[in-house]
Amino acid sequence: MNEALAGILPVAPTPFHADGAVDEDGMRRVIDCMVDQGVDAICILANYSEQFLLTDEERALLTRISLEHAAGRVPVIVTISHFWTDLVVRRAREAETLGAAMVMMMPPYHGAGLQASPQGVFEHFQAVNDAIGIPVMVQDAPLSGVTLTVDLLARMARELANVSYFKIECPFAADKLAALLEAAGEHIEGPFDGEEAVTLLADLDAGATGTMTSAMFPEKIKPIVTEYRAGNLDAALEQWKRCLPLINHENRQCGLRATKAVFMEGGVIGSDFVRHPLKPMSQRTRDRLLELARDLDVLALRWGA
């Protein structure tokens, strides 16, 4: 990449057939739909991609399919999180070899009782930093249960040249983003938020330059970022108000199932299957989701028509 990534870098869902098998053609259609949504990059194999429910062979297949099918139309970010440092390094090298523009990773964790020390976390990221020549995004999410202090994140930014993107989606994300930028802003190319953009406006106020949402309706969320960064704060606020009911419903009621439901309704994928032990959403929740999506005229709902 010649320029720092900014804007909206959504997470691609992993489509499955109704029997639970990976839908390879569906993955290609997901990539095509996201390109048509006008995204600035696509992230694959993240938590919202059900990465924790995929075999190593499926990960390799989806990485190859996604990068080959994107074919340089947009940058692709490959998530490589794992507790074992050697495996994370292996995944990082494979992603770079296949053409990934960036890798994203969480700190090593395996439940609340098995976490690395702060120095161990630093060395985990350092090993990836030293193994590849593309940027690394740190995912600071409550799912890990690992507390990544501002001091530790700032140290990574200062001392690890490739660790230059940070996705902050912990509680009070805006304050943490602001503190991180104050501590090491000159070493940070991409301060981002996540959590389906539920805190986006506050995070933009704090200095975020983009967001990593789901793939459900990035074409509606992206203008919040672009208008804000252009100085059109009133326009950003109005778009935020329009999007917030659907953002909130996704974040609080649906989770990763939301994009799949909307994509299936619009013909992007053939099934919204999620792998066990995840369960389908209730019909009540689904009905409200689709109503809110139709009210916003979400592109994915008519993409396959």
Automatic annotation (TrEMBL):
<dbReference type="InterPro" id="IPR002220">
    <property type="entry name" value="DapA-like"/>
</dbReference>
<dbReference type="GO" id="GO:0005829">
    <property type="term" value="C:cytosol"/>
</dbReference>
<comment type="similarity">
    <text>Belongs to the DapA family.</text>
</comment>
<feature type="binding site">
    <location>
        <position position="212"/>
    </location>
    <ligand>
        <name>pyruvate</name>
    </ligand>
</feature>
<dbReference type="Pfam" id="PF00701">
    <property type="entry name" value="DHDPS"/>
</dbReference>
<dbReference type="GO" id="GO:0008840">
    <property type="term" value="F:4-hydroxy-tetrahydrodipicolinate synthase activity"/>
</dbReference>
<protein>
    <submittedName>
        <fullName>Dihydrodipicolinate synthase family protein</fullName>
    </submittedName>
</protein>
<dbReference type="InterPro" id="IPR013785">
    <property type="entry name" value="Aldolase_TIM"/>
</dbReference>
<keyword id="KW-0456">Lyase</keyword>
